[in-house]
Design goal:
20% strand; Rossmann fold; 8 helices; two-stranded antiparallel ribbon; alpha/beta
Length: 282
């Protein structure tokens, strides 16, 4: 959108002086701002289409590259503690708030692992978000790992916590859009690495999220994939239904795979996100 939306890049200092990269897609006098937290292995640039769509409704979009992802520093697929992701997100939120006109409503959008990060953030921080959109959150895997793999992972977590493991992943399991699947496969900024410590920290964060869900007090829209082979839609439904806040909306998108914002019917999903944000601007 030449002349209307301006795309820029920025950097901020994360925990431990890690340099974190973020992207902005800004419109003049925005009615709202959307802060994006991406999923494991991916990065902020994959949300450009979402940002362009939001710009057409006068929403500015800001997307952070989590540490170890995209243009941010850090060992790929590794964290020492889950809490550093929450602290990084809080620093990003403060950075974005300083870029916006005073009083602009802010909404959080988290996908997959970013959905888990977003939910845990809402449980621990009293940040001024007007609401959150959570897509295909990692609140449980869609399959049960063999016991021997779990035991081996626990051993590595204590002996070689930062040892990188490659996760075999077929992009066609993420989306039915063949072009998007090919783009994912060919994207040099996407990696497939995870360490034992990161997996252990994510698993612990899931358990904590279920225990502290009563702390979430903002409206939340859950958009869950009906054909998700990565995360458990049933666990996400259970979590959403357990929340104390009355303003919770849940929709299972039948037939869609894990990346609902990259599916062939993504225009419908984007409209739903846009309409929900508009509904909660007041």
């Amino acid at each position: 959108m030449p002349g209307i939306m301006q795309e820029n890049h920025g950097y901020l200092e994360g925990v431990g002086r890690i340099r974190l990269h973020y992207r902005t897609w800004e419109v003049p006098d925005p009615e709202a701002a959307v802060l994006v937290v991406h999923g494991l292995f991916e990065h902020s640039a994959r949300y450009e289409e979402l940002a362009e769509f939001m710009a057409s409704s006068r929403f500015s979009t800001f997307a952070l590259d989590l540490r170890g992802h995209g243009g941010s520093e850090g060992r790929r697929g590794h964290i020492s503690r889950f809490d550093v992701l929450l602290q990084d997100l809080d620093r990003f939120r403060r950075e974005v708030q300083g870029l916006l006109p005073v009083g602009t409503p802010m909404f959080l959008l988290g996908h997959s692992m970013g959905g888990l990060v977003g939910l845990r953030y809402l449980e621990e921080y009293e940040a001024p978000f007007a609401g959150a959109v959570i897509t295909s959150p990692w609140l449980g895997t869609a399959y049960n790992a063999p016991r021997w793999k779990v035991l081996l992972g626990n051993i590595f977590n204590h002996v070689l916590p930062a040892f990188p493991f490659s996760v075999p992943l077929d992009p066609n399991d993420l989306t039915q859009d063949e072009e998007r699947a090919v783009a994912y496969r060919d994207d040099p900024q996407i990696h497939s690495t995870i360490t034992p410590r990161m997996f252990t920290e994510l698993s612990g964060a899931i358990e904590t999220a279920f225990r502290r869900g009563d702390r979430i007090n903002v409206p939340v829209l859950f958009l869950l994939a009906g054909d998700d082979s990565f995360v458990s839609t049933e666990r996400s439904l259970a979590f959403a239904r357990s929340l104390a806040t009355p303003a919770v909306s849940v929709e299972v998108l039948d037939g869609l795979r894990h990346e609902v914002l990259q599916e062939r019917s993504r225009a419908d999903v984007l409209r739903e996100v846009r309409d929900w944000i508009r509904e909660h601007l007041a």
